From TrEMBL:
GO terms for molecular function: ATP binding. CDD domains: ABC_NrtD_SsuB_transporters. Residues 2-235 form the ABC transporter domain. Keywords: ATP-binding, Nucleotide-binding, Transport. Gene3D superfamilies: P-loop containing nucleotide triphosphate hydrolases. Pfam families: ABC_tran. InterPro entries: AAA+_ATPase, ABC_transporter-like_ATP-bd, ABC_transporter-like_CS, ABC_transporter_ATP-bind, P-loop_NTPase. This is ABC transporter ATP-binding protein.
């Protein structure tokens, strides 16, 4: 579903060149959930923005369902870290979730159905008429997730979506993502700096190196498909995998 081939990205500004991505190549199969980790500043956000068609690639190619990405691909949704900035404060929760559906020109009845379904899926049916600023951070991020889900994406990209919420909310949101991913059979690329989160969510974890940014390791997460915050995290294999990812990240940092 996602093909990233020798992707390169250089930022140019004020006479300075920053090579954010050297050369990154990997695939994500349809229906897979792949997590990307790597040292701070190694280009994870840049990679996601290139895949989302929000930034032009400098070199190489990104394909979604076989089509080269030249702008935001249809049937792709993105959830960013900064939920505070991704929701419109003057719109209600319902209006925020409905906005992309209006842009998709869906009929009113279908929009209402999708909005109600996605708000129910994230447990926010009662908050439909509230404004984002009346909600907690975790609830606002659930609105952002509902908006992505209502859009019925084939591909869901997430950039450190839980970095700004407390630990308990984070665990709840991780389980929400796993449930939605299974129910919707969506292909997901999830960027995080949290090793445990990457192992808990992913079917594969890709470790990026920095300077130059490339794929340092591509680790298969052979944990049972049904995950549980307590049971999965207590498995000896979970500990082994997080150790493995940790060592690769240390190596990636050393490669600077
Ligand atoms: N708009 C920009 N102009 C110039 N350089 C940029 C720009 N955006 C990012 N960079 C640089 O590109 C590199 C990669 O940044 P990016 O935000 O993609 O990394 P990251 O892995 O997501 O970082 P973090 O883990 O800290 O969120 C960094 O050196 C950063 O300073």
């Amino acid at each position: 579903m996602l093909e990233i081939r020798e992707l390169n990205k250089v930022y140019r500004g004020s006479g300075r060149l920053v090579e954010a991505i050297g050369s990154v190549t990997f695939d994500v199969a349809a229906g897979e959930l792949v997590c990307v980790v790597g040292p701070s500043g190694c280009g994870k956000t840049t990679l996601l923005r290139c895949v989302a068609g929000l930034l032009p690639a400098g070199g190489g190619e990104v394909r979604v369902a076989g089509e080269p990405v030249t702008g935001p691909p249809p049937r792709m949704a993105v959830v960013f870290q900064e939920y505070g900035r991704s929701l419109f404060p003057w719109m209600t929760v319902r209006q925020n979730v409905e906005l992309p559906l209006k842009e998709k020109r869906l009929p009113r009845a279908r929009r209402a159905e999708l909005v109600a379904g996605s708000l129910a899926a994230v447990g926010l049916s009662d908050a439909a008429d509230a404004h984002p600023w009346q909600l907690s951070g975790g609830m606002q991020q659930r609105v952002a997730i509902a908006r992505a889900v209502a859009y019925e994406p084939e591909v869901l990209l997430m950039d450190e979506p839980f970095a700004a919420v407390d630990a308990q909310t984070r665990a709840d949101l991780e389980d929400l993502i796993l449930r939605l991913w299974r129910d919707l059979e969506v292909t997901a690329l999830f960027v995080t700096h949290d090793i445990d989160e990457a192992v808990y969510l992913g079917q594969r974890v890709i470790v990026l190196s920095s300077s130059p940014t490339g794929v340092m390791a591509d680790i298969k997460i052979d944990l049972p498909r049904d995950r549980d915050q307590l049971a999965t995290r207590s498995l000896p294999l979970f500990g082994e995998l997080r150790g493995q990812v940790y060592r690769w990240i240390q190596q990636a940092r050393g490669a600077r």
